[in-house]
Design a protein that fits this description.
The chain is built from 16 helices and 31 strands. By secondary structure, it is of the alpha+beta class. The chain has 3 domains: 248 residues, P-loop containing nucleotide triphosphate hydrolases (Rossmann fold, 3-Layer(aba) Sandwich); 98 residues, P-loop containing nucleotide triphosphate hydrolases (Rossmann fold), CATH 3.40.50; 137 residues, Peptide chain release factor 3, domain III (Alpha-Beta Plaits, 2-Layer Sandwich), CATH 3.30.70.3280. The strands form 7 sheets. Strands 26-23-25-24-28-29-27-30 form an 8-stranded antiparallel beta sheet. Strands 2-3-1-4-5-11-6 form a 7-stranded mixed beta sheet, sandwiched between helices. Helix 3 crosses helix 4 and helix 4 runs parallel beside helix 14. The structure holds guanosine-5',3'-tetraphosphate (G4P). The site of guanosine-5',3'-tetraphosphate has 17 residues, from helix 2.
């Protein structure tokens, strides 16, 4: 095991069990190769025996109907929400980010549970729209980002172009960790700039570890044994330029999120993956302090954690839910009694699960940085804190105002009560915002992307046997209303037509035009309207 590691701050070194943990997510535009890379990570981590096991999921994602099928098959979808595997002396926890752009809020929350992100880009396409969006979310949290430029076995863009694009588009310095040799059909491999090694890709054997030649720098005469003269001359020239023009690798700058190291490779050929894994080990970082009213340090003895995701109805027969908890501090052991801070109740955590690739396993123990799943009957909600007694509130898991609003009615009006229950559950799961208007019947459901309405309708029918209709409304947005109690009551009474309550009972103002919001700003100086609400209660 790795020796006690030195934190970049002035804190003492972490206990080795915590210091060896790396909790991260992969962000990418669809099709860049996230699923393939995940699969190769698991392969190297020994968590799966054969490539192809994760693939079913990647394919299912691509089309909507398959996505529905995947939703039905909750087992697959959930077991992949957080996966743990060992790599050398490290324990990697890979948290899955939802693939579809419609789920950006869910993605945001997922990213609150990790300490770093890997950004996968396609070497031919560079920075794509979804990459940029997800990157912005990482930036909000100053997450360290490691970049993997994939599909180098195909025709790709010029290396400097790719790097320039990342620097300009994302406003982050790029430092090359490896440099590609040749491209497309003539792609040979990479020169590893960190380890002064030549890594050669083996096209014939996709799952074999690439051949690695240790050299004494780029001028080592043995280079010529492996690289043809024209490519070698180009490599030397480009590396010289890169070293002159680009930022050098710097652990601190990477960890602060100002600089991203980039590796070039080909996930499908298992090429560059191992170097990237080494990069995660090096740049990590190890589990970081988590934001609460006070910073929670991973090395604190008392166990604390927060729920960042709830997955309901994993098994429709049992209506059970799994709350995914990121442990912020301490050493958790199975059977521990933790305080559920919001409910002010003790909870014996007897059946926590760890997700090891395709299998769920009972977690006998877990450390700060780990993600455990806690099966429950609906007590645990996103944002909830679990502690050994301290009445902690974590901060920084916001709820965003939805961008699309529709009314939802039960196909059979007699079943309105069931609809209430189903929608409440989805609201708690974070899959949608559900507003109950002050006047009239029915519910107004808010989401970030159109696809979510369809997924919801399908799940309500599947899980509750209740056909529903979603219909357009006149509203385009919602804002949480806050201010002195009396002012809020007065405002709600004066605007009954447009006021509703969310699933926590908090008032929201449904708006049609920006003008509505401006009017409130003008006429109600004591009232503030906000587009986000902190879910940590
Ligand atoms: P995603 O999860 O980011 O959406 O991407 P995914 O891994 O599913 O990969 C998208 C497509 O890109 C897949 O092809 C995959 O095989 C291919 N791919 C991934 N890595 C590489 C690579 O290094 N080089 C090349 N050339 N292709 C790569 P597909 O045709 O959609 O699926 P399949 O036929 O391979 O199953």
């Amino acid at each position: 095991m790795r020796a006690m590691s030195q934190s970049p701050s002035n804190r003492p070194a972490l206990p080795p069990e915590i210091a060896r943990r790396r909790t991260f997510a992969i962000i990418s535009h669809p099709d860049a190769g996230k699923t393939t890379l995940t699969e190769k990570f698991l392969l190297y981590g020994g968590a799966i025996q054969m490539a192809g096991q994760v693939r079913a999921k990647g394919e299912a994602r691509r089309t909507r109907s398959d996505f529905m099928a995947m939703e039905k098959d909750r087992g697959i979808s959930v077991s992949a929400s957080a996966m743990s595997f060992d790599y050398r002396d490290y324990r990697f926890n890979l948290v899955d980010t939802p693939g579809h752009s419609d789920f950006s809020e869910d993605t945001y929350r997922t990213l609150t549970a990790v300490d770093a992100a890997i950004m996968v880009i396609d070497g031919a396409k560079g920075v794509e729209s979804q990459t940029r969006k997800l990157f912005e979310v990482c930036r909000l949290r100053d997450l360290p980002i490691l970049t993997f430029c994939n599909k180098m076995d195909r025709e790709s863009r010029d290396t400097f172009d790719i790097i320039d694009e990342i620097q300009e588009n994302l406003a982050i310095d790029v430092t090359p960790a490896s440099w590609p040799i040749g491209q497309g059909a003539s792609f040979l491999g990479c020169y590893d700039l960190l380890g002064d090694r030549l890594e050669l890709m083996d096209r014939a054997e996709r799952n074999r570890v690439a051949q690695s030649v240790v050299l004494e720098g780029l001028d080592d005469p043995r280079m010529a044994e492996h690289v043809p003269p024209d490519l070698l001359a180009q490599l030397r020239e480009e590396v010289e330029m890169a070293r002159e023009l680009l930022a050098p690798p710097d652990l601190k700058a990477v960890r602060e999120g100002h600089r991203t190291p980039i590796w070039f490779g080909s996930a499908i050929n298992s090429f560059g993956v191992k170097e990237l894994m080494e990069g995660i080990a090096t740049y990590g970082p190890e589990p970081q302090p988590q934001r609460a009213e006070r910073d929670i340090l991973p090395e604190e003895n008392a166990v604390t954690g927060f729920v960042f995701k709830v997955q309901a109805n994993m098994d429709p027969r049992h209506r059970d839910r799994v709350a995914f908890v990121r442990l912020a501090s301490g050493h958790f052991t199975r059977g521990m009694k933790l305080t559920h801070v919001r409910a002010k109740k003790q909870m014996a955590v007897t059946a926590p699960v760890l997700f090891l690739a395709a299998d769920r396993e009972l977690a006998e123990e877990a450390w700060a940085g780990d993600i455990i799943g806690i099966p429950n009957h609906g007590q645990l909600r996103i944002g909830d804190a679990l502690t050994e007694g301290e009445p902690l509130r974590f901060t920084g898991i916001p709820s965003f105002a939805p961008e699309l609003l529709q009314t939802c009615r039960a196909g059979d009006p007699m079943k309105a009560k069931h609809l209430d229950k189903a929608l409440t559950q989805f609201a708690e799961e974070g899959a949608a915002k559900v507003f109950k208007p002050t006047i009239g019947s029915g519910f107004i459901v808010g989401v970030v992307g159109q696809l979510q309405f369809e997924v919801l309708a399908s799940r309500i029918e599947l899980e509750y046997g209740l056909p529903v209709r979603f219909e357009p409304t006149q509203y385009t947005s919602a804002r949480w209303v806050s201010g002195p109690k009396e002012a809020v009551e007065k405002f709600a009474a004066a605007n009954r037509q447009q006021v509703a309550h969310d699933s926590d009972g908090d008032p929201v103002f449904l708006t049609r035009l920006q003008w509505d919001i401006d009017r409130v700003g003008r006429d109600w100086p004591n009232i503030s309207l906000t587009a986000t609400k902190d879910m940590m209660v």
